[in-house]
Amino acid sequence: MLINSVVLVLREILEAAILVTALMGLARIVGLGLTWFYAAAAASLVGVIGLAAVLGPVTDMLDGTGQEVIGAALQYGVYLLVLLVILDTRQRVCGRRHSRFTGWLMAAAVALAVTREGAEIQLYIGGFMSVVEYRQAVLLGSALGAGIGISAGILFYWTLVTRPRRWAYPLCLFCLCLLATGMIMQGTLLLEQAGWVQAGEPVWNSSGIVSEQSIAGELLYAVFGYEATPGPLLIALYGLGLALSLMASIYAIRSRAGGGDD
């Protein structure tokens, strides 16, 4: 139970931590600052509590698929917000790479990501609090997993912001492209579990290289949406999502004097 708790909480924390620190790194690189992060933290707290409260009724309303459907909606929402963030960090006439909307977009993306992962952790830990023989192992494992995930996020942040200035911005955008596109994979897999979509027969099987049930597979799923047996729908959506985010990044990187002084 201790190892299971470490892996589960690490998986959830790592996904949110990497995305959050990537956005924090981008904010620092474009000179935005971190004021928006305080609003994101407050919204995340409200979101976690609110989602945990409504998840039961929504699940009943959707015939037991509420958790998957809400999770997918949040994942798609994060992807869209990250795409907008990338576009909004294009260079403007005044020389800035941010507008008055950039911080709000970042805050919303963080709030959605943390809400989903935080609610998952809260439900997991809450489910074992009444089981005396598991309580200590679950709490200790959760604390270890959270510590490792947050530490990885901090390391990722400093890796981004300490790159040479000419490379820091493109590297940060590329990482956001991969992270956000992974959200599409995860969201689609959740809808497939709920029976809302059919991914089709697997195009390949990479379980022999990295199994989804292994620790590496779970962490790759958390960060990049790794799927060992993707169907045509998953591959198509991943390709489309990655292409859109990369095109947005190229537009933002190459921009010089477009977009005005907003």
UniProtKB/TrEMBL annotation:
Compartments where located: Membrane
Membrane topology designation: Multi-pass membrane protein
Gene Ontology MF annotations: ferrous iron transmembrane transporter activity
GO terms under cellular component: high-affinity iron permease complex
InterPro entries: FTR1/Fip1/EfeU
Transmembrane segments annotated in the record for this chain: 6-27, 34-57, 69-89, 101-125, 137-160, 167-185, 233-253
Keywords, comma-separated and alphabetical: Membrane, Transmembrane, Transmembrane helix
Protein name: FTR1 family protein
Similarity comment: Belongs to the oxidase-dependent Fe transporter (OFeT) (TC 9.A.10.1) family.
Source taxon at top rank: Bacteria
